[in-house]
TrEMBL record:
It comes from Tribonema minus. This is Uncharacterized protein. Keywords: Kelch repeat, Repeat. InterPro entries: Kelch-typ_b-propeller, LZTR1/Attractin. It comes from the Eukaryota. One of its GO terms (cellular component) is Golgi apparatus. Pfam families: Kelch_KLHDC2_KLHL20_DRC7.
């Protein structure tokens, strides 16, 4: 790692950011005239910033892409040099232990290439949800898709109603739902919030049962647990750290 020059960090936009423990990872972006594919790390404990040296097949220079972290890997997808430069949403993975890049090989990739879109990960199902953005013709998109990290497949999400086509919006995931807000379509700026329920919020008794199960000693033989309850337990395990009472 090496210390970057301060102006290089301060004059970029369209950078992706995501947390890994106490480290904020910032990837790529543009100054308005040049695009980058550098990775920087901000340490919240020391307030220091360093440029991270990586190896392997580094993603191309880009901006307005998205990044997320699952386990010890950071994933980069989408974006471009203003408009998308690829034929699909190529996904690049950085192992945060070895700092080696590799491209995720997706069979029959049906993803829609896009820039300035929104992206969220559901830790319970390991599905990546993406909405909107704009394509190579600068057309705002209404395309709603998800990528399953387990099956390594893209899927088009069909809904009864949908937000208008837009870009430069935001989306978050919490408690089994996606919340999408704001953005613009080139002619109009939106001032709205949409909710998409991935799954219903589990009853409190089920949540208590999931926490209780995680506090049990690891059994020699796994008990028979319904798939829905097993998914809830895994979601709680990934997103919460129960505090053991004395």
């Amino acid at each position: 790692m090496e210390h970057p020059q301060r102006p290089f960090l301060s004059d970029q936009y369209g950078v992706s950011i995501c947390w890994h423990g106490h480290i904020l990872l910032m990837y790529a972006g543009t100054t308005g005239s040049e695009y980058s594919n550098h990775l920087y790390a901000f340490d919240s404990r020391t307030a220091g910033v360093v440029k991270v040296s990586t190896s392997g097949s580094c993603p191309s220079r880009r901006y307005k892409h998205e990044s997320f972290i699952v386990d010890d890997c950071m994933y980069i997808l989408g974006g471009g040099s203003f408009a998308p430069t690829e034929s699909c949403m190529y996904i690049n993975q950085l192992n945060l232990r070895s700092l080696v890049w590799q491209q995720v090989k997706v069979q029959n990739d049906t993803s829609t290439p896009r820039t300035a879109f929104s992206c969220c990960v559901d830790p319970g199902t390991l599905k990546v949800w993406v909405f909107g953005g704009f394509d190579v013709d600068n057309t705002r998109l209404q395309a709603f898709q998800n990528y399953d990290l387990t099956s390594n497949e893209w899927e088009v999400v069909q809904t009864v109603c949908s937000p208008d086509a837009r870009a430069f919006h935001s989306m978050i995931y919490t408690q089994g739902s996606l919340y999408l807000m704001l953005g613009a379509n080139g002619k109009r700026k939106f001032n709205d919030v949409w909710q998409y329920r991935i799954r219903s919020t589990p009853p409190m008794l089920q949540m208590l049962a999931a926490y209780a199960y995680l506090r049990l000693p690891c059994p020699a033989h796994q008990p028979a647990i319904p798939d829905e309850m097993r998914s809830l337990i895994e979601s709680v395990r990934l997103t919460h750290k129960p505090t053991l009472s004395a």
